[in-house]
Amino acid sequence: MITEFASDVRSGLAKPQKELPSKYLYDELGSALFDAITVLPEYGLTRADERILRRHSPEIPREFSLVAELGSGSGRKTRAVLEPLDGPDYFPIDVSTPALERCSRELADLARVTPLAASYLEGLDQVQQHRNGGHVLLLFLGSTIGNFEPRCRMDLLTQVRARLREGDALLIGCDLVKPIDTMLEAYDDPSGVTASFNLNLLGRINRELGADFNQRAFTHEARYDASWRRIEMHLRAESDQTVTIREAGVQCTIRCGETIWTESSHKFELEEIAAMAVEAGFRPEAQWVDPEWPFAENLWRAV
Ligand code: AVJ
After folding, report:
1. Of 111, 121, 201, 211, which sits with the fewest C-beta atoms within 10 Å of its C-beta?
2. How far is the CA of 186 from the centre of ligand 1 (A)?
3. Among 34, 120, 261, 262, which is best to mutate for testing ligand 1, by the most ligand atoms less than 8 A from CB?
């Protein structure tokens, strides 16, 4: 039996453009490095998300007695959403148990917290069993939706919608298109934190799958693809590499200059966000845009 991680690594490295799924960036070290990214001066995304939530969450209708969150992480941004509500039930859904523990501790004074260590859809299925007659407010913050290819994105939103009832709401954060230099700096910061975050994926494969990647032989690269409107992160081999990944039963060669694609962060246009809502079975109800860093927080109602 090989793990899902091992089989995803095996199939990703067998493609003509080698790739690794971005969800594996977040082991314990990766999550700590991501937390460091959120305080980089060049990475305005998380601060914009937080500013909007602090300013505008009091405008969210108070009717919600149950809040669930996809990929809650440590739950830092969630405070602002829970505060105006009247002691709601809160179900953070995340695959990282340490993050869930931190999140439960931090928010226990504001809500009755039930952490769910599960994938997004499995977690949402579990939330159904705790519904109490009121409407659900589901949070999907931080532009995580941008990590999904357009096809998978619509698929995910449709499956999320299928697990909600009419009148439930989705609060979803989307990072907007901005000048290319600003986007590139955000994903290739001069302190090298994002480079470490990216390179840690090879370290994780070494640790968990008994592989022998030489992390020092790879460099971090961020590119903007204007036709897809996305930042791509890659790891570029600076010399020919032969790697054995024991637990995945893989031997692979990576040529000098070849890259492994590790993440896409799609950037959105405002009109596109409304179209996505409608296509997935929601009605856009409110939208707030940060004045400093183009980022949109969207409240959609399930119809
Ligand atoms: C957590 C998915 C929103 O795509 O901007 C940060 C992850 N990658 N720097 C993003 C990330 C590189 C981040 N999200």
Report:
1. 121
2. 9
3. 34
The Å distance, Cα 144 to ligand 1 centre, comes to 7
Report the C-alpha gap between 303 and 301 in whole angstroms: 6
pLDDT at 33: 96
d(CA 26, CA 73): 10
CA angle 85, 86, 88 (to 5 degrees): 80
The per-residue pLDDT for 74 is: 73
CA distance 110 to 89: 9
One-letter amino acid identity for 276?
A: M
Select from 24, 141, 232, 265 the residue to mutate for testing ligand 1; criterion: most ligand atoms less than 8 Å from CB.
Answer: 265
Shortest CA distance to 233 belongs to which of 286, 283, 268, 197?
197
Q: How far is the CA of 17 from the centre of ligand 1 (A)?
A: 21
Ligand 1, atom 5: closest residue by C-alpha? 265
The tokens for 7 are 């089989």
Tell me how crowded residue 284 is: count the other CB atoms within 10 A of its CB.
15
**Single-letter residue type at 208:** E
Ligand 1 pocket member 22 (CB < 6 A)? no
Whether 185 lines ligand 1, by a CB cut-off of 6 Å, is no
3 Cβ contact list (under 8 Å, min separation 6): 247
In whole angstroms, what is the distance from residue 114 CA to residue 257 CA?
Answer: 47
114, amino acid identity: T
Flag whether the pTM goes above 0.85. yes
Cβ of residue 74 lying under 6 Å from some atom of ligand 1: no
Residues 6+ apart with CB under 8 A from 197: 25, 30, 33, 34, 36, 37
Q: What is the mean pLDDT of each run of 10 residues along the chain (303 residues)?
A: 94 98 94 95 98 97 96 86 94 89 92 95 96 94 97 97 98 98 98 98 98 98 98 98 97 98 98 97 98 98 98
